[in-house]
Each structure stands twice: as C-alpha cells, then as structure tokens.
Design goal:
- It is a single chain.
- This protein has 14 helices and 14 strands.
- The chain has 397 residues and is an alpha/beta fold.
- The strands form four sheets. The protein has a seven-stranded mixed sheet with strand order 2-8-7-6-5-3-4, sandwiched between helices. Strands 9-14-13 form a three-stranded antiparallel sheet.
- It binds 4'-deoxy-4'-aminopyridoxal-5'-phosphate and glutamic acid.
C-alpha cells in the first residue's frame, strides 16, 4: 500500500543523483564506467579552509549556531556581496543554509501559496521544478534552445507573466547550459520585471566564480529590481566544498525573516564547523582559488574540441560552470542497436550502457533534446569518454 503523501508521490527523484548512482553501481559491478554525471569539482578542499575547520573543532564550535548562521559569517557574506557584486546587504538579510539547495527551498517555501506560478526558463537546474512542486507551486516553463543560446528574451518573459506569477527562478551562469546572461540582457529582463513587483526574482549565482570570460552580473545590481530579488550563492562550487553543505540567500528583510522562520523549524541551520571554515574562504582573495578555474578552463577547451567531432552533436562553447549541453536531437526518434531512443534520457542511458560513459538526459532540465556532461573530471577521463562515445555513435551517422 502506498502510504506516501501526495506531495511525495508527485515528486521525482533528482536525475543527477539517479544517473550518478547508476554509474556508481555499474562501476561497483566491475564495469569500467566514466561518470560525467554529477556536477561537483573533483578538487580537494583548499588547505587553508581545511585548517579553519580543524581550528573550529579544536575551539569547540560544537553547539548550535544562530538559525541564519554565525554573525561573523553573515558579515563575511555581506562583505563578499559588496566586494564582488557591489550589492549592499546587511547581515540581517542573509540566511546561511545547508547548501544553496536549501537556500532556494527556503525562499520558495517562504513565498509560495498553493497554485502560485513560478517561471522557469529552460533549461533549468533539475531540482527547480521539483522544489516548486514540493512547495505547492506550479512551474511555467519558458522554452529556449541551442539556437537562442539557451536564453529567454525580455518579450518572452513579459508574455509569460500573469497575476498568478509569484517568482522567476534561474541560474546565471546556468547549470546546465554553461551560458550566462550579459549585463545588457539582464538589464532588459530587469526592466520588464520592475513593472511587476509581485514577482520575486530568485537569482541563483552559485557558478559566479567558475567563469571563463568577463565577470558576471547579478540581476540584483539593477536598482529597479533590487527590492524584489533574492540572491542565492554558496560554497560548493567555487571552493570545492560540495559535501560541507553551506549555501546562502540574500533577500529583502521580510523574505529573509521568512527563510529564517522555516529554517528554524526544519534544520536549525548549517553545520557550525563548515560555517567557520566558510568565513576563511570568503575573506580570502578569490584569486587564491583561481587554480581550479584555470584547470576547468583547460578541460573545457579540451572537451569542447573533442565533442565537436562526435557525429550528430550540436554544441555551444560554454562560457561558465563545468557543463557541456549538446543538442542530440539527431538521435531522437531513432532505433540504435535495437534500442528505441524516445528522448534524451533514453539516449543518456544508451551511452551509459554501450559506451560506459555516464551523463544526464535533458528531460528533467526541461530540454528533452539535449544531454548534460559535467567536465569536472580528469583530462584523461574526458579524452577517453569522448573517444568511447564517438566510437559507439560513428556507426549510426
Ligand atoms: N544551484 C545550482 C544551479 C546547482 O547546480 C546546484 C548544485 N550543486 C545547487 C544550486 C545546489 O548546490 P549546493 O546545495 O551544493 O550548495
Ligand atoms: N548540482 C549538481 C548537479 O547538477 C550536484 C547534484 C545536485 O545537487 O543535484 O549535478
């Protein structure tokens, strides 16, 4: 008997974890699988950040912190937002959470009533749609494609906004496309959104530092929308701290209070040792950790050159984050080696089984014609993965 709540029955599993678990199981059974599934840096946590964690343990940071995080950490975040983004947030507007994932859920939980609509430009990060559902909302998908650089236009946005629209949620830099909105593009989106103050902008900037071109812009930098924006960021990507689970939101005061209220009942706040270590990470000059970004850039260039050679893949050069998001519509609707490929999830499974390379299908990113590879892997693995895929697909081109 299924005794689970409707809320849980409605919910899907996180496809990033589904595919990474599949790849892990195959590996455990002795198959040589290269997993380019999960988006997480393969670097160790930098030594100075680790040392700050050891110090925190020795100094007995073993009790609950304030629900929204230690004041010193919120001050460091406030200083970071000023230093890097020219944004003025008081510590009272910041809520530190168990990863950016919880920071986003807090904001959605604080905002949504049943049936409220949230605009999701596609492709979107897999969890957004499920988080909206979990909080009783309904996602309204704004499609984009390879041809439009996977970005929405101001006109498209304006057409989608209704009285029921409560929020728009997007990542820039974007997981999975690897693109980001330029200053001018964000300005035109901000101009539209400023006309609709009932719409809260949830701007996920977790890939801010993993960026190979110019510095990215936060939509919160436009004064006309500052008061209606929640900025999301965290430690996972830039500092290779995925398992330490520290992220944060910076919001208007009323929304920050809502997040704090929810968090106080749900998790009591983030791990104290990881919070202390995050202070060190944020106070340091970001250039200290640039060696990771340099390595990602080298891998991006390598893998982009190789993926272009794969028949039937159409791919844009990612400008940020560590994903490639090729359009593989060439293979959709075909039968390959007796396997029917109805969508890119089937295609991702086909690649896992035939080429022993794990990636994530685009269905749960809202782009069923694409697949996502994370290139946060060694150069050797990337070379071999692309070689295997090319070899398997050459006979179908
Ligand atoms: N936003 C985006 C766009 C992501 O890719 C991720 C995945 N790590 C998150 C938020 C959540 O990050 P975390 O919870 O590890 O801080
Ligand atoms: N955000 C990463 C990804 O997209 C990690 C997995 C997850 O949190 O879903 O692969």
């Amino acid at each position: 008997m299924n005794k689970l709540s409707e809320r849980v029955n409605r919910l899907g599993y996180s496809q990033t974890f589904v595919m990474s678990n599949k790849a892990r199981e195959m590996k455990a059974s002795g198959i040589d699988v290269i997993s380019l599934t999960l988006g997480e840096p393969d670097f160790d946590v930098p030594d100075d950040i680790k040392q700050a964690a050891f110090d925190a343990i020795n100094e007995n940071y073993s009790h609950y912190s304030p629900v929204p995080g230690f004041l010193e950490l919120r001050e460091a975040i406030s200083a970071k937002l000023k230093r890097d983004n020219n944004l003025e947030y008081k510590p009272s507007q910041i809520c530190v959470s168990n990863g950016a994932k919880q920071a986003i859920i807090n904001v959605l939980a604080a905002l949504l009533n049943d049936g409220d609509e949230v605009l999701l430009p596609a492709p979107y990060w897999v969890s957004y749609d499920e988080m909206v559902k979990m909080m009783g909302g309904e996602s309204v998908i704004l499609p984009t494609s390879y041809v439009t650089d996977f970005k929405i236009t101001a006109e498209q946005l304006e057409e989608a906004i209704t009285e029921k629209t409560k929020a728009i949620l997007f990542s820039s830099p974007c997981n999975p496309s690897g693109g980001y909105y330029t200053y001018d593009e964000l300005k035109s989106l901000a101009k539209v959104l400023a006309k609709y103050p009932h719409v809260t902008i949830i701007s996920d900037e977790i890939y801010e530092y993993i960026n190979y071109e110019t510095k990215t812009t936060s939509i919160a930098q436009f004064p006309e929308v500052f008061e209606q924006t929640a900025v999301i960021n965290g430690m996972s990507k830039a500092f290779a701290m995925t398992g330490w689970r520290v992220g944060y939101s910076a919001c208007p005061e009323w929304l920050a209070k809502g997040c704090e209220k929810i968090q106080g009942q749900m998790t009591s706040g983030a791990n104290t040792v990881a919070q202390r270590a995050s202070i060190t990470a944020l106070k340091n000059d970001p250039s200290n950790y640039k060696y990771m970004i340099d390595a990602f850039k080298k891998r991006r260039d390598l893998v982009f050159d190789l993926i272009k050679e794969i028949p039937g893949f159409k791919v844009l050069l990612p400008k940020a984050a560590f994903y490639l998001f090729p359009d593989v519509s060439h293979y959709i609707g075909k039968t390959l080696d007796g396997v029917e490929i109805k969508n890119s999830d089937d295609f991702a499974m086909f690649l896992l089984e035939k080429a022993h390379v794990g990636c994530v299908g685009g269905v749960s990113f809202g782009s069923p014609e694409c697949i996502r590879f994370s290139y946060a892997a060694s150069e050797e693995e990337l070379r071999e993965a692309m070689r295997r895929i090319k070899e398997v697909l050459e006979k179908f081109s």
